[in-house]
């Protein structure tokens, strides 16, 4: 697998109010594809935080710490396992608080994007939320190596994301890759971003 970062093409700025309007439409959120979870997987949830900067909205992403047992060193949304008694929204907010120090009272939950299944067997429910800047975050060094923001504008480019493939455990796997100057954005994170892109684009 070629894990070199991809250059980000130029894209027009997005209107914050229009982004919030589109993402507040449940019908748009439901059309983003996803994968059908098989039986017996492990339930997880991630928070998909759209930060409403006046200069253009962004996605809040993390680079997972290298010491973690799964998906170490990969770009991810804040999230993790759904604990007994939790729903996906509660789990996503709790994990975001634990991983990056995000106050769970701040995100405005809009709904859920379609579920995705990771190669490690997690059934991930993406919980979409809006955040107003500034953000006062305190990442946990045990879980997060870096917190960064990804401009939302490339998600409206119909030529993105790229589709790549690689051999994994003797099987050829196909996956999405989103451009970034520094990080390789692929896997479940890229698939969830693709669902978000489908929800954002006009149809």
TrEMBL record:
Any GO molecular function: metal ion binding
Similarity field: Belongs to the Nudix hydrolase family.
Keyword entries, A-Z: Hydrolase, Magnesium, Manganese, Metal-binding
Iron found in the keyword field: no
Any single Pfam family the record assigns to this protein: NUDIX
Keyword Electron transport included in the entry's annotation: no
NCBIfam families: PRK10707.1 (NF007980)
Name of the protein in its database record: CoA pyrophosphatase
Taxonomic lineage from the root: Bacteria, Pseudomonadati, Pseudomonadota, Alphaproteobacteria, Acetobacterales
Domain Nudix hydrolase: 41-171
SUPFAM superfamilies listed in its UniProt record: Nudix (SSF55811)
Cofactor requirements of the protein: Mg(2+); Mn(2+)
InterPro entries cross-referenced by the UniProt entry: CoAse, Nudix_hydrolase, NUDIX_hydrolase-like_dom_sf, NUDIX_hydrolase_CS, NUDIX_hydrolase_dom
């Amino acid at each position: 697998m070629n894990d070199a970062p991809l250059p980000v093409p130029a894209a027009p700025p997005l209107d914050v109010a229009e982004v919030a309007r589109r993402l507040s439409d449940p019908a748009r959120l439901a059309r983003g594809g996803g994968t059908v979870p098989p039986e017996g997987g492990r339930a997880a949830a991630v928070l998909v935080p759209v930060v409403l900067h006046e200069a253009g909205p962004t996605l809040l992403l993390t680079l997972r710490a290298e010491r973690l047992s799964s998906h170490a060193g990969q770009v991810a949304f804040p999230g993790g396992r759904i604990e007994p008694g939790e729903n996906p929204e509660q789990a996503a907010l709790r994990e975001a608080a634990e991983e990056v120090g995000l106050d769970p009272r701040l995100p405005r939950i809009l709904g859920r994007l379609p579920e995705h299944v990771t190669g490690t067997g997690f059934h991930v429910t993406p919980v979409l939320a809006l955040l107003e800047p500034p953000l006062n975050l305190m990442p946990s060094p045990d879980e997060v190596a870096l917190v960064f923001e990804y401009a939302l504008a490339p998600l409206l480019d119909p030529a993105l994301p790229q589709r790549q493939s690689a051999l994994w455990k003797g099987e050829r796997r196909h996956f999405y890759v989103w451009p970034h100057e520094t990080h390789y954005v692929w896997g479940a994170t890229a698939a969830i971003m693709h669902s978000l892109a489908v929800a954002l684009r006009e149809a």
